């Protein structure tokens, strides 16, 4: 019987990602911080062929840590983001059943509805101090009736 290989955590993570294959691994890599990616790259560079039995042991170790709560997912919001980026709305509906879910926004909420709530004179006074192209762009984003009142 051969001695199991001794690997760092980064090497173990790299081994699991390589074993997953490119499509699955690439979906996961976008959630890593830059320092973590550097450690993974270094770990992968030092990897040699890993026997199947050792890979199975590494995966079992990962599963045990994951089920104990290794801190991989720190909130429901992060989980929602991961699911929304990974699955289509149809897949989410099939998984979640009747439960409602919202698609995670791609950034802050749009400002245009908030600007439309301002008094037209106040918005007009503000835009008067802006470059004409800026004012035109802002007005183009507003509802036609609101823009006409400004």
In the residues, how many domains can be counted? 3
Q: Element order, helices and strands?
A: HHHHHHHHHH
Q: In what range is the share of β-strand residues?
A: under 5%
What is the total tally of β strands?
0
| Basic shape | elongated
What labels describe this entry?
mainly alpha; 3 domains; 10 helices; 150 residues
Explain what you see.
The protein has 150 residues and is mainly α. It is built from ten helices and no strands. It is elongated. The chain starts with 8 loop residues before the first helix and ends with a helix.
How do the strands and helices of this protein lay out in sequence?
Blueprint: H1 9-20, H2 22-29, H3 34-46, H4 52-68, H5 76-86, H6 89-96, H7 112-116, H8 120-128, H9 132-141, H10 144-149
In short:
The chain has 150 residues and is mainly alpha-helical.
């Amino acid at each position: 019987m051969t001695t199991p290989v001794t690997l760092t955590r980064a090497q173990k993570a790299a081994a699991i990602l390589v074993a997953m294959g490119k499509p699955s691994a690439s979906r996961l890599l976008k959630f890593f911080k830059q320092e973590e990616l550097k450690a993974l790259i270094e770990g992968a560079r030092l990897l040699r062929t890993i026997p199947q039995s050792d890979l199975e042991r590494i995966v079992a170790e990962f599963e045990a840590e994951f089920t104990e709560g290794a801190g991989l997912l720190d909130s429901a919001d992060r989980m929602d983001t991961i699911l929304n980026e990974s699955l289509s709305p149809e897949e989410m509906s099939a998984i979640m059943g009747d439960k409602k879910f919202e698609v995670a926004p791609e950034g802050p909420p749009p400002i245009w509805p908030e600007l439309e709530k301002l008094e037209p004179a106040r918005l007009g006074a503000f835009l008067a101090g802006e470059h004409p192209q800026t004012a035109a762009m802002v007005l183009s984003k507003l509802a036609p009736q609101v823009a006409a009142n400004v």
